[in-house]
Amino acid sequence: MMSFDKQIAIRCFEENAPSIDAEPVVGYWLSLWRGDALPLRADFKPKAVVKALPSIAMFDVVPDRSVHCRLMGSGLTQGLGQDPKGKDWIALTRQEDRAPRLERWSDVARGAIGRGLRTGYRASGAKQLSEELMLPFAPAETSDTHQVLYHISWKQTVYDPTRGGVDAVNSLAEEFRLFDLGK
Q1: Could you read off the pLDDT of 61-78 as tens digits, one per residue?
Q2: How confident is the model over 101-131, as pLDDT tens digits?
């Protein structure tokens, strides 16, 4: 069993603070750690981050094999124009981006924090950056599937997703960093 270091997770967000929208999600996820053990999905209570729920999704990841959307908040679903629940996230990705997307999700599922930036556009046409976070939960002992919490500081009322740059399902974040939590 791999060992993790909660201090790496804390430093990840102390050295580069999350967006205002993501702060409660990050704080709650950090509070669920048990010493240096990744949080358990069973301990995650959506009511604790109710204001962020429209911008949250949960994914089932089998590292190096698949990523499926388990559930997606209403704001993200509205922005996508479809409910991706149960769908293969990699199959919804542009062909040329499938391998790097699967690699990112697999790395997070194994015990890393993923942080990315996407460019969106306000209704006025002004560019707007959105931060996306991928936060791992401890894997279930009886399954190869790892759950990953996803949050993006994107709001349908602020962005026009039809403008270039935000192709929410097909594209990869323009900037992406992994923070390995392993000891």
Answers
A1: 999 999 999 999 988 887
A2: 999 999 999 999 999 988 766 666 677 778 9
What are the residues facing 138 on neighbouring strands?
Answer: none
| Total-model pTM | 0.90
138: left (phi over 0), alpha (psi -120 to 50) or beta: beta
Q: Which amino acid is at 51?
A: K
Distance CA 24, CA 17 (A): 12
